[in-house]
Amino acid sequence: NITMVGTRLQLVAFVILTVGRLAGSLRLGIDTAETYTLDDWQCVQRAGRSFGIVRAWHSYGAFDTNVMSTVANGWLAGMEHMDVYLFPCYALSPEQQVANMIANLTHHNVTYGQFWFDIELNPSPGCAWSADPSQNCDYMARLMAAAQKTGRAFGVYTSHYEWERTMALTCTAAASAPLWNAEWDGQPTDGFKAYGGWTKQAMKQYNGTGQLCGKEVDLDGYM
Fold first, then answer.
1. Residues in contact with 156: Cβ distance below 8 Å, sequence separation at least 6, in sequence order
2. Between 1 and 173, where is the model more confident?
3. Residue 50: CA atoms inside 13 Å, Cβ hemisphere, count?
4. DSSP 8-class letter at 61
5. pLDDT band at residue 40 using 50, 70 and 90 as cut-offs
6. Can you point out the beta strands (E) in the chain?
7. Which one is catalytic: 80, 95, 120, 138?
8. DSSP string covering 74-132, please?
9. What is the pLDDT of residues 87-132, one digit of tens each?
10. Half-sphere exposure of 182 toward its Cβ, with a 13 Å CA cutoff?
11. How confident is the model at residue 14 (pLDDT cuts 50, 70, 90)?
């Protein structure tokens, strides 16, 4: 029956088109504190990852010089987006850390989309968050103000658990910034519950113990 065959073909075409649109709307990437070569990023790209986020500021309060080659290699490999992140040390001035990172990135001609604040337990000696969440929330507000002065796009990486134990869930100091939410459930886009004034996530880290191209890596996704 030609009509039935035609209908089936239309249905198949519709399914393929729909799946293609859904697949096209999902972007997968990685974040890393390691040095990546051109070959590393080419492997990442072949694995279906289109963006990378690279550490630019150490948790002990210093510029990460590896960011220069790692970001450059990402662009050379054809990655669509390359961002950087800052892991703040509570013992140091938030304003100075933001300014120093931006100055170093500019001085070394690092091309990046935006930067992210990494808000979680800080393991570096002397850099741990205060035991008082209200003081941490005030510190976060200062980070936000310093970021706004740079004129660069920025956001915040954290999780419900990390925000609760560092800032308290009632702290909304960063709610105006996009949220890169960590929820290691293996699902690239789902699983968000509101906290800290955020009602949605801009991006999700869905695996913090992944393996890709021979390296341990964090896996991320956004729609």
1. 116, 117, 119, 174, 177, 178, 179, 180
2. 173
3. 10
4. S
5. very high
6. 27-32, 51-57, 81-86, 115-118, 154-158, 179-182, 203-212, 215-222
7. 120
8. HHHTT-SEEEEEE---TTS-HHHHHHHHHHHHHHTT---S-EEEE-S---STT-PPPS-
9. 999 999 999 999 999 999 999 999 999 999 999 999 999 999 999 9
10. 19
11. very low
Element (H, E) at 7: helix 2-25
From 40, 83, 118, 218, the catalytic residue: 118
Residue 120 annotated as catalytic: yes
44 — pLDDT class (breaks 50, 70, 90):
very high
Phi-psi region of 107 (alpha: psi -120 to 50; beta: other; left: phi over 0): alpha
Q: Rounded CA gap, 218 and 37, in Å?
A: 17
d(CA 43, CA 174): 35
Question: In degrees, to the nearest 5, what angle opens at C-alpha 177 toward C-alphas 175 and 181?
Answer: 80
Greater pLDDT, 180 or 25: 180
31 included as an active-site residue: yes
